[in-house]
C-alpha cells in the first residue's frame, strides 16, 4: 500500500533498499506484459534509458548535450511506461535538432542548480517538469531524481501531486534526505555534506514556458520512479489545464525506480537483511 511504501522510504535500511531494487527487473517485466503488445519493446527502451543514454551523454564530456533522436526516444520510453499522450509525441518531434542540442547543453551547464536547468529545458516543446527530470536524471543521476507519481505518493509529507518546479524541488529534498540517511548507515564516519542544500537553492523560482511545455507530470518514475528509484539509487497524472496545449502536465506515471520499489515492501520487511550482493556496506553509495 502507499502507507507501507511511505514507511519504507522513511525507515527502510540500506539492505532493504538493495533487496527491493533487486526486484526491479521482475516488476518491469510484469508491467511490460500487462501494458504492451510487445513487452520486449519496453524492456529494451528501459535498458537504453537506464544504461546506454547516461553513457552517451557522459562521453560528450563537459560540454554534454542530448541529440534530437535521444529526446524523442526518451519521450517514447516515458510514455510507454506511463500514460500515452499523442500530442506530446508530436510536439517533441517538432523541436529542431539544433534547438535540442542548444537547450540541453544550456541546461546541463546549469547543473547542479536544478531549477535553472529545468527552466532551460522548458524552452523545448513538449518538455514539462516530468520530462525535464527524466533528461536531468540521465545526465546527472547523482543530482537529479526522476519525478514520478508513484515516487511522489511514496513520500508521506507530500499529500497530492503538483506538477510544478516547486513540487519537484520539494521531492528532491525528500529523496536527498533518504539517500543521506542510507549513506550515513553505510559510512557512519563520513561527515555530513551541505552540498545537497546548496544544489537545491536556485536564483529565484523557475517558471515553465506554457507555450512550449507545462509543469509536467510526475512522469515516469514508473513505479518510476525514481533511478533510491532505479535512477536515483543507482544511476531516476492527472490532467492539468496545461495539457491542453501540449504541455506535459498530468501526463505520465512512470519513473525508473518506483517500478521496483513499490513492488513488495512487505517482502523487504519480512525477509532477513541480505548481504549487499555487489559492495560491502562501507563501500555502498546511494544517490538521489
Low-pLDDT runs of 5+ residues are 199-283
Number of contiguous helices: 15
What's the main sheet like? 2 strands, parallel
Question: Rg, please?
Answer: 17 Å
Helix content: 40-55%
What does this structure look like?
With 288 residues, the chain is an all-alpha fold. It has one domain. It contains 15 helices and two strands. The protein has helices spanning 2-11, 14-22, 24-35, 39-59, 68-81, 86-94, 97-110, 114-121, 129-139, 149-153, 165-186, 195-200, 230-233, 258-261, 265-270, and strands spanning 220-222, 254-255. It has a two-stranded parallel ribbon. Strand 1 (220-222), helix 13 and strand 2 (254-255) form a beta-alpha-beta unit. It is globular and about 45 Å long.
TL;DR?
The chain has 288 residues and is mainly α.
Draw up the topology in text:
Blueprint: H1 2-11, H2 14-22, H3 24-35, H4 39-59, H5 68-81, H6 86-94, H7 97-110, H8 114-121, H9 129-139, H10 149-153, H11 165-186, H12 195-200, E1 220-222, H13 230-233, E2 254-255, H14 258-261, H15 265-270
Parallel strand pairs: 1-2
Region (Disordered): 182-288
Biased composition (Low complexity): 209-221, 253-266
Biased composition (Basic and acidic residues): 182-202
